[in-house]
Amino acid sequence: MKLFVTIALIGILTAGSGFAHDFTQGSIYLDHPMIEEAPPNAPVLGGYLSIQNMGDTDDRLVAIESSAAEKVEIHRSTVTDGIARMQPMKEGLVIPAGETVWLDNGMHAMFVQPVERYRAGDEVPATLVFEKAGRIDVTFKVEERSTGSGAAHEGHGQ
User: Fold this and answer.
1) Chain segment 48-106, per-residue pLDDT in tens
2) Residue 1 placed within a domain
3) What is the CATH number of the domain that holds 67?
4) 10 phi and psi, to 5 degrees?
5) What tens digit of pLDDT does each residue of 5-57 get?
6) Is residue 150 in a domain?
7) In a domain, 29, yes or no
8) Number of domains in the chain
9) CA-to-CA distance for 126 and 123, rounded, in angstroms?
10) What's the pLDDT at 31?
11) How far is Cα 62 from Cα 43, in angstroms, rounded to an integer?
């Protein structure tokens, strides 16, 4: 009976760790970095997460680095005269003190020329570089493409 209880407790304690997918350094909290699975030979992958600045001063995400792609850019989607465009945010992205910024379909990490095809369940290492918080190593989990999401990426990179 003790063995059963021990095994059950280990299962309960480790089950939650599979769902916990966040990273913290200093006043920066990163939640659920993910990439949607893309078709074979996709020239780009969109990376998404939320960034919370729990500090008293603004910080800035200045770069994202990863050996999983030729380069990674911070992008913003805009619509002008009914035409959608994605533009690199060369100045980086300000994370205001006490606020959360979501990198979703509007703003996102763009993994350009991935080195391989990533499938649901894969993990993609990256480093987010902040002006004040410094370098934070993260893992983007690749998830199945959900219906209707990622539409902003169709045709991007072509």
Assistant:
1) 999 999 999 999 999 999 999 999 999 998 888 989 888 999 999 999 999 999 998 78
2) no
3) 2.60.40.1890
4) -60, -45
5) 333 333 433 344 445 589 999 999 999 999 999 988 899 999 999 999 999 99
6) no
7) yes
8) 1
9) 10
10) 97
11) 23
Q: What does the pLDDT look like over 125-155, one tens digit per residue?
A: 999 999 999 999 999 999 998 754 444 334 3
What lies within 8 Å, CB to CB, of 38 at 6+ separation is 44, 45, 114, 117, 118, 145
Whether residue 87 lies inside any domain: the answer is yes
Nearest to 112 by CA among 22, 30, 35, 23: 35
DSSP the chain: -HHHHHHHHHHHHHHHHHH--EEEETTEEEEEEEEE---TT-SEEEEEEEEEE-SSS-EEEEEEE-TTEEEEEEEEEEEETTEEEEEE-TT-EEE-TT-EEEESSSEEEEEEEESS---TT-EEEEEEEETTTEEEEEEEEEEPPPTTTTGGGTTTT-
Under 8 Å between Cβ of 103 and 48? yes
Check residue 99 and give its pLDDT.
97
Contact in structure between 42 and 114 (CB atoms under 8 Å): yes
Q: Look up the domain containing 113 and give its range.
A: 22-144
Backbone angles phi, psi at 9, to 5 degrees: -65, -40
